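Bug report (template v2)

What were you trying to do?
Predict the complex of my protein with iron/sulfur cluster.

What happened?
Run completed; filing so the output is reviewed.

Input:
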Amino acid sequence: MNKTKSKEILGILRTVIPNPVCELNFETPFQLICAVLLSAQTTDKRVNIVTKELFETYPTPEALMKADYAEVYRIISSVGLAKTKARNLIGLARQIHEVYHDEVPQKYEALVSLPGVGRKTANVVQAVGFGIPAMPVDTHLHRMAIRLGYIDSNQSVVEAEEAYRKYIPKEEWIDAHHLFLLFGRYYCKASNPSCKDCQLEKYCKFN
Ligand code: SF4
C-alpha cells in the first residue's frame, strides 16, 4: 500500500457509497455508546430495533443505572451476548452518571475504562459521537484491509487500524471508516463478495 493508491481507493469508494454515515440510530453520545456496545456480533438493524424500547424506557444514564437487570435483559434479549451486554449497560450507565456527571467522556483512556467498552467502541464514540479523528476497525474494516492490501492476511485488527491511519490523511479517517465499513457490509461481504463489476478489482488481492 502507499498513500497514492489509498487515495484512489477512497475516491472509488466515495462514488459507490455517496452517503457514508453510521447506520445505528442515536440522538446523544450516551445513546451512541449504548448502541455500539450492543452491536458486537449483532447487525445494526437488530440493534436499532431493541434500542427503540431501551432508549424510551431509560432515556438517561441515571434511569438505566437504576434499571432492573431482568428488564434490560428482556428488552435486548434478541441481540447476541445479551446477558453480558445487559450487565455492562447498567454498569456503564452507573459509571457515566457517578463519575462523569451524565456526560460520556471524550478521552480514549476514559472510554475504555467503562464496562464493555473496548478499542473499537471507544474509537466509534470518539469519531461518530464527537467528531474526533479516529479509525475504528471492525470485522468489515479488517477484511477490507486484507483484501485491498493495507495489511497481510495474518495481521491483526490493531495492525489494520495502524495501516489505515498511516495511509489515510487524519481529516479523512471518520469518512474512510464509514466507507470501508459500508462497502464491506453491502458489497465486499465475507462470503460471496460482489466482485463482478467491482471497481476496486485492480487493487484487490482476494482472487
Ligand atoms: S473485487 Fe471482490 S473481494 Fe475485491 S474488493 Fe471488490 S468485491 Fe471485494
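What did the reviewer find?
The mean pLDDT is 96. The two ends are 17 Å apart (CA to CA).
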